[in-house]
Structure formats: structure tokens, C-alpha cells
């Protein structure tokens, strides 16, 4: 890593912070006051490090402590190309940051800079792991949290939740997401229209399966009713074929609303033809 070129000068304290540097938590009030007292008594040992655009790379706590102490800070400019690696390397020994926090900061810094053009070496997890002083496995866990439980990343960085706990939640979320994807794929094969409604956010996957189950139950009910009706009517009609039943029909004895007329016979004939066609299409006995 190329060493920074030091330039001592005065600058306004409200300067911008580099995105990776901004991920690191600030000192608490007691620690900050202690640092300010030390600076007031002994001066600023290490200058605030800026990048070539003037953003803070290292020393945001020192800058705040200088303000409290009423001491004018000094600055140095880092002219290397890989500012992320510099920030991670500079902060790896911080006492108020755990390995879990460092892993999450490293993973998030990598995700923030993915759009920037970098060489494969600069971009690799192993390279960042070496600079941050945390294992590739821990960075992998942090990356899992970013993908499957991103709302917990800030809690890990702030130290209010451990990386292991957040990783456990991320694993469960991943398993649930994969299960949902499998369910959606199955739903698409069985009912593409319902799957489309899930994809469009109109239905949840659970709601879609519930609707499909309701449709299947209604379809079964209708098939049961139709089957019972046909089994009641057609065998009875077949039994009177060739008998004198038709000749003995007396309109005056017909139940109210159930008289047999020529129109009813025509409809019945059409219905029988439709039944025969359906049985042929379905290859039923």
C-alpha cells in the first residue's frame, strides 16, 4: 500500500466522510471526551487522513475530539487507489469494534463499491479479509446477512446484535425464501394464473395455495353433485327402454313443475347426445 503524503493545513471540520469510513461506529461520549482531553493536553498525535477528493478516510473521531478540545486538527492525504482497503486496514485494531462488526462493515463496504471499476484482486473477499483482519468465513456470514436479513446489518455494525445471531436469522430467511421459490415454481406448473398474481404482488404464496385448495374443493363438490345426478337419472332412464312406461304417461298425474313435455324430451335428447360425446372424448366405458 502506498503511504499517504502528509500535508498539514487547516480545514473546516464539517467535511464529508468516505462511505466506508462512515460505516464504522463513533466512539461513545465518555470515550470521545477522554480522547478530547488527551488531545488538549498532548496535542493530536495522528492527523486526520483524507482521500484525494477531501473526504475523511480515517480520523472522524479524532476530528470530533479536536472540536471538543478546541484544537486545530492536522490532515494528511492518502493518494492510493484502493481507499476501501486503506480504511479497513487502518481500523482493524480499533478497540471498540469486534470481529463481527468488522466483518459486517467489510461486507457492506464491498457491496457499496461493487459498481466501481476494480481489478479482481482489489475486489476479492480474500483481499479485503486480509486488510480488515477478519476471516473469509466471517465476511461470508456478514454477506449472508446483507442478502437475507439486511435490516439487521446496522444492528451488527452498532454492536446491538452479534453477527452470529443475525446470521442465524439470515439462514432461516434464506431457507424460507428458497421454500417459497420452490412453492412458486410448483404453483406455476399447476396454475400459471395464480402464480402470475403472486409474482405481481396481488397474492402471497400462502394465499395462492389457499385459493387453489378452495378451487379444488369446489371442483370436487361440483363433480360429486354431477356424478350423483347422472347416476340417479341415466340408469333409471335406461331401465325403461323398450317398456310401456312412455305410453302410460299421464300429464294429469305429473308432480307440479315436473311435467314431461315435447320441449323437455328434446332437451333430454340433446343432453343424452352430449353425455355420449363426453364419454367418447374421455374414453369412459
TrEMBL record:
<dbReference type="InterPro" id="IPR036086">
    <property type="entry name" value="ParB/Sulfiredoxin_sf"/>
</dbReference>
<feature type="compositionally biased region" description="Basic and acidic residues">
    <location>
        <begin position="111"/>
        <end position="125"/>
    </location>
</feature>
<protein>
    <submittedName>
        <fullName>ParB N-terminal domain-containing protein</fullName>
    </submittedName>
</protein>
<feature type="region of interest" description="Disordered">
    <location>
        <begin position="109"/>
        <end position="130"/>
    </location>
</feature>
Amino acid at each position: 500500500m502506498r503511504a499517504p503524503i502528509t500535508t498539514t493545513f487547516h480545514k473546516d471540520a464539517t467535511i464529508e466522510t468516505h462511505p466506508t469510513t462512515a460505516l464504522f461506529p463513533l466512539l461513545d461520549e465518555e470515550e470521545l471526551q477522554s480522547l478530547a482531553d488527551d488531545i488538549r493536553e498532548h496535542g493530536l498525535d495522528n492527523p486526520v487522513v483524507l482521500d484525494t477528493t477531501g473526504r475523511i478516510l480515517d480520523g472522524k473521531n479524532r476530528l470530533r475530539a479536536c472540536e471538543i478540545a478546541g484544537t486545530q486538527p492536522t490532515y494528511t492525504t492518502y493518494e492510493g487507489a484502493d481507499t476501501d482497503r486503506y480504511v479497513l486496514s487502518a481500523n482493524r485494531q480499533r478497540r471498540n469494534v469486534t470481529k463481527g462488526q468488522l466483518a459486517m462493515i467489510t461486507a457492506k463496504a464491498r457491496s457499496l463499491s461493487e459498481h466501481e471499476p476494480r481489478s479482481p484482486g482489489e475486489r476479492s473477499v480474500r483481499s479485503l479479509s486480509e486488510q480488515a483482519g477478519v476471516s473469509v468465513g466471517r465476511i461470508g456470514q456478514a454477506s449472508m446477512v446483507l442478502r437475507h436479513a439486511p435490516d439487521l446489518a446496522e444492528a451488527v455494525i452498532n454492536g446491538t446484535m452479534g453477527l452470529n445471531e443475525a446470521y442465524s436469522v439470515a439462514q432461516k430467511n434464506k431457507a424460507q425464501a428458497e421454500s417459497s421459490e420452490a412453492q412458486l415454481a410448483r404453483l406455476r406448473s399447476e396454475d400459471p394464473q395464480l402464480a402470475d398474481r403472486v409474482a405481481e404482488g396481488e397474492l402471497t404464496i400462502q394465499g395462492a395455495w389457499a385459493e387453489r385448495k378452495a378451487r379444488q374443493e369446489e371442483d370436487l363438490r361440483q363433480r360429486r353433485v354431477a356424478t350423483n345426478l347422472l347416476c340417479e337419472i341415466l340408469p333409471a332412464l335406461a331401465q325403461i327402454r323398450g317398456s310401456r312406461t312412455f305410453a302410460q304417461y299421464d300429464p294429469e298425474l305429473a308432480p307440479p313443475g315436473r311435467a314431461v313435455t315435447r320441449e323437455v324430451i328434446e332437451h333430454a335428447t340433446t343432453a343424452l347426445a352430449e353425455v355420449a360425446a363426453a364419454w367418447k372424448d374421455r374414453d369412459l366405458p
